[in-house]
Amino acid sequence: MENKAERIKPLLVGFYSPSAEQQLLLLKVSVLMQTKKLKSTEDYKGIFLQHDTTRAQRKYLKGLVSEAKQKELKDESGNFVYRVRGLQGNM
């Protein structure tokens, strides 16, 4: 088992300004969309960025993904692909 000093710890980065809420939301989405570039670098491939969601939001999202998978399995024609779309932090 790892000792406490070696554990990976999450870091919460927040963007907030009451006067520029929409602009900051766009900035957040822009930053999160660029995270796939981290995978291509050797130094940063172990760093992951994701939306800060509550347990209830994660549970709701997990239910939506599960429902989409069930619909895809039930589709006998194979002509449809079911996916969950939208901003993860707004669900």
Q: Output the number of helix runs.
A: 2
Major sheet: size, sense and barrel closure? none
* Helix content bin: 25-40%
Structure classification: mainly alpha
Number of strands: 0
Domain module count: 2
The percentage of residues in β strands lies in: under 5%
Q: Given the C-alpha coordinates, what overall shape results?
A: extended
SSE map:
Blueprint: H1 21-33, H2 55-74
Task: Characterise the protein shown here.
The chain has 91 residues and is mainly alpha-helical. 36% of the residues lie in helices and 0% in strands. It folds into two domains: 1-52, no CATH class; 54-85. It contains two helices and no strands. The mean pLDDT is 80.
What are the key terms here?
0% strand, extended, 2 domains, 91 residues, mainly alpha
Care to give the gist of this entry?
The protein has 91 residues and is mainly alpha-helical. It is built from 2 helices and no strands. The protein has 2 domains: 1-52, no CATH class; 54-85.
